[in-house]
């Protein structure tokens, strides 16, 4: 069942196609970016982060000093390092190497069923789903593993799905300058299944179509038929 409601999505619908180019939100190593993240230099220390976890344990009603919880703050911060590794990688760098020897290949390139794990910026619980990333090359292509890494770079941050969809599409559009870009994300939001309205089995579908995918209905139909079977399959491990 695919429905669109609830948390961790923007308020005004999701399957909206937009044009124009948002500024690319790159790595956050040295600067404050568009989404308001502080520069890395302002990060709290490891000890401060672990103390914050102890505070949350106490707040939940348990004793952070009991044996089973003693190592938990360290484990949680290590998990967070993994969950939010996207802040330390730069999408522009990932896409920096492109190839122009494509022997005249000018049909669409589609990498589908890219599993991703992201985290809703409202509740900090997982958003798990898959991405389909397509573009219509104009002379240049990028290695396919880079498309998967691009998805991960934006997924491994605090996100809403709509924003992530736009970020992936615009990064690809900016670097490759292809004839078109199409990005479709479908994901289950644990803030909807494990809390709040408690609706497991729902998935949120978002898309961004640029260039030929936006302007040419037959190109868009071709993309949708290529990924069509995926969108009816259950989401992985949700
Ligand atoms: Zn949420």
Automatic annotation (TrEMBL):
GO cellular component: cytoplasm
Keyword Lipid metabolism found: no
Catalytic activity: GTP + H2O = 7,8-dihydroneopterin 3'-triphosphate + formate + H(+)
UniProt keywords, alphabetically: GTP-binding, Hydrolase, Metal-binding, Nucleotide-binding, One-carbon metabolism, Zinc
Source species, domain of life: Bacteria
Pathway: Cofactor biosynthesis; 7,8-dihydroneopterin triphosphate biosynthesis; 7,8-dihydroneopterin triphosphate from GTP: step 1/1
Coiled coil (UniProt feature): none
Biological processes per GO annotation: one-carbon metabolic process; tetrahydrobiopterin biosynthetic process; tetrahydrofolate biosynthetic process
A single GO molecular function term of this UniProt record: zinc ion binding
Name of the protein this chain belongs to: GTP cyclohydrolase 1
Highest classification ranks of the organism: Bacteria, Pseudomonadati, Pseudomonadota, Betaproteobacteria, Burkholderiales
